[in-house]
Amino acid sequence: IDRAFATSLPEEVVQSAVRRQVLDRVVAELKASGALDRAVKEVLASDQMRLAIKEVVESPELRAALARQTTGLAEELVGGVRTRAAQLDNRVERRDRPAPVPYAGAATRAAAFGIDASVVFLVFVSLSALVALVSTLFGTLRPEWLVGVLLTSGLLLLAGIYFVTFWSGAGQTPGMRLLRLRLLGPAGRPPSFARSLVRAVGTVIAIVPFFAGYLPVLFDDRRRGLPDLLAGTVVVYEETSLPDSLTG
Asked: How many other CB atoms sit within 10 Å of the CB of residue 77?
């Protein structure tokens, strides 16, 4: 046997089996007779297979791999949105710049604001549903115009608390963090509570006339909108170096 294995006989046997499609013929015969299906069912139904599948699914290695895959996919998606928004910042501007600027443009800021607005709206809807559920115990609130006023006031109050808290506390909202933007005051630090409050009021004023208050972003040297002009703030890309003087 050892002398036979030392020759080319094993290779010839394998090549012959491939040429004659021995494996395919065996599988076809097993499938036609039903033996293959019975064998697969018995293997899948066995306690050993179930235990093996359970161990694989619950293994920390699989969980870590799934977490890395999900995180990588999310980072790639956000990174793609961030890159395209930054490119669009330069395209929508009505002026040519000789060099890249550290100030965030209209597209990136709009994307970040959209994310933040969605978060605020979801929180508001959840709170409204909870209040509506509790109010059913005491009857429906009347008249309807009062309900509308309360809902609008609640939404504005929630949005104001959300933006002012994040602007003054961290210098960026969750949406700005995803897009890697940062809000800075005159000293290059997050704006104070007062400046953030002024900026929130300016944001409402800028939004009311069909977002016309953000048109100066397309023309201003520091890409500032009406809220930034009122509060003395700027929005910058995190990864860029900042000039010595941020606001004039």
From this structure: 10
CA–CA gap between residue 223 and residue 215 (Å, rounded): 9
SS3 8: coil
- pTM for the whole thing? 0.69
Residue 115, SS3?
helix
The H or E element containing residue 163 is helix 144-170
- pLDDT tens digits, 85-134: 988 988 887 667 767 789 999 999 999 999 999 999 999 999 988 887 87
Q: In this structure, what token pair is assigned to residue 146?
A: 């009062």
What are the contacts of 222-228 at 24+ separation with CB within 8 A? 222/101, 222/103, 222/246, 222/247, 223/89, 223/101, 223/103, 223/104, 223/105, 223/106, 224/103, 225/109, 226/202, 227/199, 227/200, 227/202, 227/203, 228/199, 228/202
CA proximity to 107, closest of 123, 125, 87: 87
